[in-house]
Structures are given as C-alpha cells and as structure tokens.
Amino acid sequence: MEMKMEEYAIIDDYLCIKMPGEVDHHGAATIRECADQLILDDKVKNIVFDFENTTFMDSSGLGIIIGRYRKISCFGGKVYAINASERIGRLLRASGMSSIIEILT
Amino acid sequence: MENENGTRRRKQFVENDICIEFDAVSENEGLARVVIAAFISRADPTLDELEDVKTAVSEAVTNAIIHGYREQGGRVVMRAHLTEENELSVEIIDRGVGIADVAQAMQPLYTSAAENERSGMGFSFMEAFMDRLEVESSIGEGTVVHMWKSFGAEEELMPILQAAVWNSSGRV
What we know:
CATH class of chain A: Alpha Beta
Order of helices and strands of chain B: EHHEEHHEEH
Radius of gyration of chain A: 12 Å
Structural class of chain A: alpha/beta
Strand content of chain A: 15-25%
Distance between the termini of chain A: 31 Å
Oligomer: heterodimer
Order of helices and strands of chain A: EEEHEEHEHE
Shape of chain A: globular
Helix content of chain B: 25-40%
Strand order of the largest sheet of chain B: 1-2-3-5-4
CATH architecture of chain A: 2-Layer Sandwich
Distance between the termini of chain B: 52 Å
Largest sheet of chain B: 5 strands, antiparallel
CATH topology of chain B: Heat Shock Protein 90
Helix content of chain A: 25-40%
Number of domains of chain B: 1
Number of strands of chain B: 5
Radius of gyration of chain B: 17 Å
C-alpha cells in the first residue's frame, strides 16, 4: 500500500486528505485503505477532502466520499470538501454530495 | 476561410476511426481517458466537452473491469468514430459476465458492488455527459456500452446529472 505521508494529516480532530490529480477507481482503493486506517485513530472525528490538485474525478470519487461519510457520521463527524476546481465543485453539487458533505470554496 | 459570397465556410472535420484493445486492469482507466482525449482533440471540443467524454469513458471502462470481469482480468475493446459532422460515437466492449437486467443496472444509485463502495452513479454520469447511451448485454457473453456526443451543442449538462440522481430515491 503506497501511502505518502504528506498527503494525509491529522489536525485537531480533522483528518485532512490531499486528493490526487486523478480520482478514479484505480486510485480509490489506496485512498480508502489509508483513510480508513487513519480514521481508526481516536482523535479523528471529521474528514476534509482537499481537491486542490484534482483535475479529474469520476463516480469512484463519490464512492470514496460516501464511504468515508458513512464511517464517521455515526460518530457525529462531518465531511468537508475544500479547494475544488469549478468543474469538480459542480460535479460534487450536481451529484447530490452537498446533502452529506459541506463544500467549502 | 471565406466563400465567394463572403460567408464563412464551416470548418471541415475529417472522419476518423480507431479501435484499441487492452487488459481489464485499473491502470488502463487512465489510458483509455488519454486515448479518447487525443482522438477527439481534432474535433475542437470545449474543455467541458473534453472532460465530459473522458469521464463517460472512464465510467464505462471501470464498469467493464469491475463488473464485466469482476476484477479478474480480461480484455476491453474501445472503438471510437468521428463523423464529418463532428459527432463522436464510442463503444466500450467486454466479453465478461454480462448484465441480467440492463434497465435495473441503469437506475441511478443502483449498484451490485456496494461492498466495493461503488456509488452506483456510473450510468448516470454516462447519460449526463454524453448525448445518447445504449447498453446491450448478454449473460455469459459480455456487454457493449455505446455512447454518442455531438460537439458544439449548447446544452447544460450538469442539470441532467442532477435530475438523474434526484429522480431516484435520493438515498445515500
């Protein structure tokens, strides 16, 4: 499992994940495994997906978000998306993600 | 370019056709996106149209890998055709397990791979980002996903995706 430490950070009770340039099924498994392992950390309550580097995302990205949301929402955690480009932001909103995550611009 | 009476002649697009076959491994999802992007670059797509086609192809190829071949490997064929009228036709073909109920599979948010965290939005994305989508499948023989898109149309695509998703139960 390739986990680059600079892509994941725990700040207070937020797990911050720097999403890769292309978010697809190929990259999803790694993100899922790394995030889920870090979510086991007692400190982690909320998740922030940072899309600053993301130029492409298909429905696999939504699966990652929904999966992590399910994991932490039962403990009262919240999921955020930050630094999304115009297109990625539109994709998140149009597919209904704003009903479960907060998209911050 | 100008005609005799001073009107601008429409840019003539060249008909083109490709067919590539590749292993059904997730590495090739990105490959398929790059190939289709290169193929349609001569059609002068807008940035949004380019991203739309890449996304739709990514979804179809991913489906072939995950569902068609259940991630056990196989071969995926991508055929693409551009007409002189600048219409793109793409076929993603697998010889995998096939879909028992295509109508059910195409329902927004339906997935047969929930344990894999599949969102069930693959077909919705394809329908939203392409003009037309047809799926043919036979159990035990495979699946053909056929999509069309004309470049230069003024449509607003995101609302289509929104409608496709919200017309379902809306549950997440």
